[in-house]
Amino acid sequence: MKKINGSRILLETLYRVGVRDVFGYPGGAVIPIYDEIYKFDKIKHYFSRHEQGAAHEADGYARASGKVGVCIATSGPGASNLVTGIMTAHMDSTPLLAITGQVGISMLGKDSFQESDIVGTTLPITKMNYLVTDIRDLPRVIKEGHYIARTGRPGPVLVDIPKDVQMAEMDMEEYERLYSEELDLPGYNPKPQNGTEAVKEAVELIKGSRRPLIIAGAGVIKSGSSPELREFAEKNNIPVTMTLLGLGGFPTNNPLSLGMLGMHGTVPANLATDEADLVIAAGIRFDDRITGNPKEFCKNAKIIHIDIDPAEIRKNKEVDIAIVADLKGVLVEFNKSIKGLDNREWLRRVQDLKAQYPMEYPKSADGKLMPQEVLEEVDKLLKGEAIIATDVGQNQMWAAQYLSYTNPKSIITSGGSGTMGFGLPSAIGAQVARPDKKVLAVVGDGGFQMTFHELMMAKQYNLPLKILILNNSFLGMVRQWQEMFNEKRYSFVDLSLNPDFSKIAEAYGIRSATIRTKEEMKENLEKLLNLDEPVIINCIVEKEANVLPMIPAGTTVRHMVGKRGVLDGA
Amino acid sequence: MEHKTHELLIIAKNTNGIVARIMSLFNRRGYFVKKMTAGHTNMEGYTRLTLTVEGDEKILEQIKNQVHKIIEVTKVKVFPQVGVIRREMMLIKVKSDNETRPHIIQIAEIYRGNVLDVGPNSVSIEITGDGEKLAGFVEMMDSFGVLEMAKTGVLAMSRGEKM
Question: What is the ipTM of this complex?
Answer without folding.
Answer: 0.91
